[in-house]
Structures are given as structure tokens and as C-alpha cells.
Amino acid sequence: MEKGPQDSFDSFIYIADLIFKEMEDKALSEQERRELVEWIGDDDSRMRMYEGLKDRAFVMKELKRLNRRYPTEEPIARVFEELGLPVKQRPAAMRKEMARRWQLPAAAVLIVVLGASLYLFTKSKPDHSSLSHTVKKLQHAPVPAGKATLTLSDSTQITLDTLHNGEVGLQGNSTIVKNNGQLVYQKDGKDSAVVYNTMTTPKGGQYRLVLADGTRVWLNAASSLTYPTAFAGKDRKVNLIGEAYFEVSHDRDKPFVVTTQDLSVTVLGTRFNLMAYTDEDSYRTTLLEGSVRVAKGDARKTIKPGEQAVVRVKGGSVEVDGDADIDKAIAWRSGFFKFDETDIRTLMREIARWYDIDIIYETTDYSAHYGGRISRNIPLPELLKLLDGNGIGHYKLEGRKLTVLQ
Q1: Which of 23, 196, 211, 275 maximizes the CB count within 10 A of its CB?
Q2: pLDDT at 143
Q3: Neighbours of 103 (CB within 10 A)
């Protein structure tokens, strides 16, 4: 990335290649991860594209938009045909450079198409940020390696971040394998007693998990997930404390159920984020794809993509926000904080979970609200400088204690 201008077409091809590797669950090197985070920066349009390129429906919609607006090259039409999508008008003949690239394998062609999308999207769409404050561009540090502890059915604990890739062990009728920063459960087909494991992340840690049914889970900091090593019975039930993003493997006959302290979320196959930290005043289920039913006691609501179910900890109702901020809900997955009219106490709880600090308040004025996107990988003192620029006039950091002053 340092060898050429960051807005050149080749650089977008390179970035698309990194995103494609993530889509294929291939580990990025420390340098690649740093370059990807630096490319995203605090640019909202690039963040939206980064998240969107992981969604097939978004990619197809974006390519159709580009096909209408620009004389895009032949590979886009070819990809449309391979995916069985209608192409009313074939784009103009391929440019020489694209003709050369078309000789690459199909996966590489998709990278070229994604790169074209990145390039044209960023070039054609100005960034009109709706955030209340502009955060200056940062030189981001590499995303830290996943940190988590696995507790087996016999209470044995394994520190995953110090473990090498390869087989971890057998639990019930599943083999556990560590593969480039994620834990994968592989069912061997034999019948045996169902046993449970628990993955726990510390403050400042995250980890990825593939359950025995193929469901993918991203576990946020200071969270834990308890789950069977193989699913038996009429449903697939797991228990969450904290926050996780789920991509649930579809099984019409066996619903996937996430329970928290007093909440349950039931799905068949979908993508959603569930925030259920015990120190928050509400639990929030944000739906990206599919349909989920959120229930607390007798209160229950079914939400659609783009909606968020809000359940107050002290109360029995389930409220639905029909215009959820998806980017904000899942910003943590991409290594960012995103604040939008966020009060100081909510903001500080999220910071405390990530940087493993205690917050002390000497101020009595909690009326101010803050906004912006900030990398989760900058040192805490730098983050505090940004917050100071956003209006937090005074703070004092002593060891692991942060005092918000008058």
C-alpha cells in the first residue's frame, strides 16, 4: 500500500483482495490487517462498502447500480451471468487492462469486480457524515490477536491465544480445531452424550467460533458463550453473556435460540447482533438478514432486517426501532467504536470493557452527547485526547483508573 497512491485502481484491487480473504475466512497477516484498517480510516463510505462487500445481496445491488451509471467492463456482465442474474444490456467492450485481468481464475475475477466497485463507489460518492463530531484521521495500529479462554465440560481451561493452530481435542462427538484465530467444532457423526463448552473473552479481547451446525459467532470483549459441542433435540440453544454477532446456519426443523439472563432470541437462519451486557440498561438485538423473535417473559416481537429490538432490563416490554443504525451496532466487528449522540456513561462503559479500566465520575453533568468513529486499536491516551477534542473537558488516568472530572 505504501508503494503507490492509495486512490489508484491497483490499490483498490489490493484492498478487495484483502476483503475477499476475510470473506473466505483466511487469516490476514499483521501488515495486511494494518493496511486494511488504515485504508478504512474514519471514512464512512469506505466502512459501509467494507461491511457491504461481505453481503452477497449488497454486492449484487451495488454492481447493478454501477452497471447503470458507468461503462463498466465485461467481467461484471460475466459475473452476473454466472450467478444467474439478468443482464439487460452488456457493458462496453473490455479495456485492455481488464482483458488482461480476465485471464485470472474466477475468484480473482470477483476480486477485480469488487475492486472496481470499491474504486467507483469511493470516487463517485462524497462522504456526508451524519456524526455530530468529525474525528481526525488516525494511523491505526494492527488489530490485536483474538483473546479468549475455552472451558471444557470437565472444567479444564485452555487459553486460546497462546495455542498453535491444529486439533485442540475431542468433546462429545465433535473435534475442536483452532484455525487462524477461530475455533471450529467438527461433528464426527457418532452418537454420544451432549456436553457443553464455554468460550470467554476478557476485556480487550475478541474471538471467532464456528459451532457444530456451521453457525458462525463473533464474540465481543468481556463476553461468554455457553453451547453444546453438538446439537441434539428440537432446537439449537446457546447462552450469551455480553455481546456477539451471529451468522446462523439455516435449519427449518431446528430453530436456533440465544438466551441471556432473562431474554431469548429465536431464529431459523439469519445474521444479527445481540448486545446483552449486564451493566447496560437495555438489551439490543439488531437484525441484518432474516427474521428473529425476541421475547422477555410474555412480551415478544418479531423484527425484520434493519430493525432493532430494545428490551429494558428493568421492564417487561420489547420495543422495536424500525430504523436501526446497523453500522453502529456492528462497528466493533471491524475494529471501531462508533458513537452517535451517545451519552458519556454509555460511551465510557464501552471504553472500559475494551481497555480494561475502571471509570470514576467526579462530574455531575451527564447531559453532553458525543459522536464519531474511532479505532479500537489506538492507545488509551490517544483516545482520551480525541474525546477531549469532542468536548470532555477534563480527565485523569492513573494506572487502570480513569476519572472523569468536573
Answers
A1: 211
A2: 38
A3: 8
Mean pLDDT check: name the lowest of 48-52, 77-81, 140-144, 402-406: 140-144
User: So what CATH class is 149-327?
Assistant: mainly beta
Share of the chain above pLDDT 70, in %: 68
User: In whole angstroms, what is the distance from residue 393 CA to residue 406 CA?
Assistant: 8
Q: Using DSSP bridges, classify how beta strands 358-361 and 308-312 pair: parallel, antiparallel or unpaired.
A: unpaired
Which class for 372: exposed (0-12), middle (13-18), buried (19 or more C-beta within 10 A)?
buried
Place of cell 443504525: 325
- Note whether 340 and 328 are within 8 A (CB): yes
Q: pTM higher than 0.85 for the full model? A: no
Look-up of cell digits 449522540: 341
Average pLDDT over residues 364-368: 80
Pick the closest to residue 342 from 294, 308, 379, 391 (CA basis). Answer: 391
Pick one of 3.90.400.10, 3.55.50.30, 1.20.1440.230, 2.40.50.100 as the CATH number of 335-404.
Answer: 3.55.50.30
Instruction: Give residue limits of the domains in the chain.
Output: 9-124, 149-327, 335-404
399: left (phi over 0), alpha (psi -120 to 50) or beta: left
Tell me how far CA of residue 28 lies from CA of 144, 365, 371, in angstroms: 12, 44, 30
Grid coordinates representing 328 are 453502529
Query: Which grid cell sits at 79?
Result: 459475473
Per-position DSSP letters for 13-79, written without gaps between them: HHHHHHHHHHHTTPPPPHHHHHHHHHHHTT-HHHHHHHHHTT-HHHHHHHHHHHHHHS---HHHHHH
Total residues belonging to the chain: 406
Q: Is the pLDDT of residue 151 over 60?
A: yes
Give the N- to C-terminal CA distance of the chain in Å, as an integer.
Answer: 44
pLDDT digit string, tens, across residues 288-327: 899 999 999 889 999 999 999 999 988 778 999 988 888 8
